[in-house]
């Protein structure tokens, strides 16, 4: 199916009909830094100290190192990102409708890049200035889920939607991989922890500039997209996704909220984010305080699982698109089960082993993170397929869930494991296992992949069939 012909401004260079993969690569890098910036504090907090003068026994003044922030201030700084994420997630649909996705994402990225660059200076100024920077970083992070849905809807052919979703969500692995390894290096160097903020902030602004130059909101208006590639991207999804002359229409919030299939995706998303964010937010603290690895080793041990997960994601995305021996519905439920139940089992293992079993603890943590590789082709793909032209709205709801989890998780950690004792962490891991398992069962029992009745304007069986089999 082809979009009605209009005059297109085309370049002689057309990326060999693969411009969509250039867009995919640039977007992946941008989302990686948007997510990574929100995680910097989670690692550098273990090496953020300031010199404090005290009087010695012989009445002479000497300097000692003390933590820069109190336990309550740390908890608030952890939660500041979620405040920003809520602001970002709630505001991005409005800005996308008014100024377009490209400009909106660029503005959000500039915000998080500048905030990251200024964070070391703001930390020296005190708690409140750094708290504000953390909120700004969170606003940048709040766009991530919506961007994944927006970019996939616009640029991914239906037949390779799994690949796009899987690769775009590698920010969840690339961000921690880069952030934790770089933080471990700088914390153990003469430069100190501020160095990683300057590097990440600079790279964020660079990636933002490249994104603004390369990205367009629609492949139809990109000079490097050939007619051949455009027909591949738009095939079977013209009336649902690509009709730029008509309004998307009023968002059917009531129908969405009453839809058990969408709600099952939301439940699975909550369980996944609740469990995974425990690792993302607090793995450095757990590895350093409970398993007793030093700071440099903590950075390496925290980052390595994400490298394996990253490799798996590059494999499972294309594999899910080409695997025809199981139905789409069976596939998304199977991949969700692999992802979620693996994580739940690993939580139970971590809850029961003694802290002296360092290698077992590290291996269990690694397996849990590797299991997350499958979630993008599980319930996230199901949500994308079910929601059609409202994918951006549904994905923004995942952002709200993410923000809520990030807001309350530090409070739960402070309440249950303030002293970082092994038995306290065992309780947290047990709660994680129960939540992840329960929400996964809900999705397996009620999840679906077919476009919902409120997504399609009029009868369009071809679109419905293409979406279901994508």
Would you write up a description of this structure?
The protein is mostly helical. The protein has one domain: Growth Hormone, Chain: A. The protein is 72% helix and 3% strand. The protein is built from 19 helices and two strands. It has helices at 19-44, 71-99, 101-125, 127-141, 144-155, 161-168, 171-187, 194-214, 227-234, 238-242, 253-257, 260-290, 295-322, 328-352, 358-371, 379-387, 391-417, 422-446, 461-469; strands spanning 49-55, 61-67. Strands 1-2 form a two-stranded antiparallel sheet. It starts with 18 loop residues before the first helix and ends with a helix. Residues 1-5, 238-247 and 458-470 have low confidence and may be disordered.
Features of the shown structure:
19 helices; two-stranded antiparallel sheet; 470 residues; Growth Hormone, Chain: A; single chain; disordered N terminus; mainly alpha; disordered C terminus; globular
Give the CATH level 1 class: Mainly Alpha
Summed up, the helix count is 19
Number of domains: 1
- Biggest sheet character: 2 strands, antiparallel
Low-confidence stretches: 1-5, 238-247, 458-470
Fourth CATH level, the homologous superfamily: MFS general substrate transporter like domains
DSSP strand content: under 5%
Q: What would you report as the Rg, rounded to the nearest angstrom? A: 23 Å
Succession of helices and strands: HEEHHHHHHHHHHHHHHHHHH
- Output the strand order for the largest sheet: 1-2
Q: What name does the CATH topology carry?
A: Growth Hormone, Chain: A
Distance between the termini: 15 Å
**Rounded mean pLDDT score:** 81
Helical/strand content category: mainly alpha
- So, CATH architecture? Up-down Bundle
Count the strands? 2
Report the helical percentage: over 70%
Overall 3D shape: globular
């Amino acid at each position: 199916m082809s979009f009605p012909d209009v005059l297109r401004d085309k370049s002689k260079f057309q990326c060999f009909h693969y411009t969509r993969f250039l867009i995919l690569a640039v977007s992946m890098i941008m989302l990686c830094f948007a997510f990574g910036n929100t995680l910097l504090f989670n690692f550098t907090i273990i090496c953020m100290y300031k010199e404090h003068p005290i009087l010695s026994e012989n009445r002479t003044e000497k300097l000692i190192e003390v933590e820069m922030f109190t336990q309550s201030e740390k908890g608030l700084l952890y939660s500041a990102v979620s405040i920003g994420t809520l602001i970002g997630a709630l505001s991005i649909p409005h800005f996308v409708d008014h100024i377009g996705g490209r400009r909106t994402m660029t503005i959000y990225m500039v915000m998080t890049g500048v905030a990251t660059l200024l964070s070391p200076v703001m930390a020296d100024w005190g708690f409140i200035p750094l708290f504000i920077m953390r909120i700004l970083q969170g606003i940048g992070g709040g766009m991530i889920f919506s961007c994944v849905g927006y970019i996939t809807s616009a640029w991914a052919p239906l037949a390779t939607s799994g690949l796009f979703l899987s690769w775009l969500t590698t920010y969840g692995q690339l961000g921690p991989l880069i952030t934790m390894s770089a933080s471990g290096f700088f914390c153990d160097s003469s430069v100190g922890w501020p160095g990683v903020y300057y590097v990440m902030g600079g790279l964020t602004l660079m990636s933002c500039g490249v994104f603004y130059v390369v990205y367009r909101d629609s492949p139809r208006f990109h000079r490097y997209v050939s007619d051949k590639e455009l027909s591949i991207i738009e095939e079977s999804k013209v009336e649902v996704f690509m009709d730029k002359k008509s309004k998307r229409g009023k968002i059917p919030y009531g129908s969405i909220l009453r839809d058990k299939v969408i709600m099952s995706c939301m439940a699975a998303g909550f369980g996944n984010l609740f469990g995974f964010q425990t690792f993302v937010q607090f793995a450095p603290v757990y590895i350093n305080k409970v398993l007793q690895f030093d700071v440099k080793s903590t950075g390496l041990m925290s980052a390595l699982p994400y490298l394996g997960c990253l490799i798996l994601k590059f494999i499972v995305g294309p594999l899910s698109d080409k695997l025809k021996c199981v139905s789409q519905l069976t596939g998304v439920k199977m991949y969700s089960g692999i992802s979620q139940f693996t994580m739940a089992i690993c939580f139970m293992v971590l809850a029961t082993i003694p802290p002296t079993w360092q290698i077992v603890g590290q291996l269990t943590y690694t397996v849990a993170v590797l299991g997350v590789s499958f979630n993008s082709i599980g319930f996230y793909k199901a949500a994308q397929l079910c929601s059609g032209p409202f994918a951006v709205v549904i994905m923004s709801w995942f952002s709200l869930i993410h923000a809520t989890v990030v807001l309350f998780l530090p409070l739960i950690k402070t309440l249950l494991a303030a002293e970082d004792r092994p038995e306290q962490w065992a309780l947290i891991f047990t709660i994680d296992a129960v939540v992840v398992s329960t929400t996964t069962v809900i999705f397996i029992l009620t999840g679906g992949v077919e476009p919902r009745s409120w997504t399609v304007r009029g009868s369009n069986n071809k679109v419905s069939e293409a979406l279901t089999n994508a």
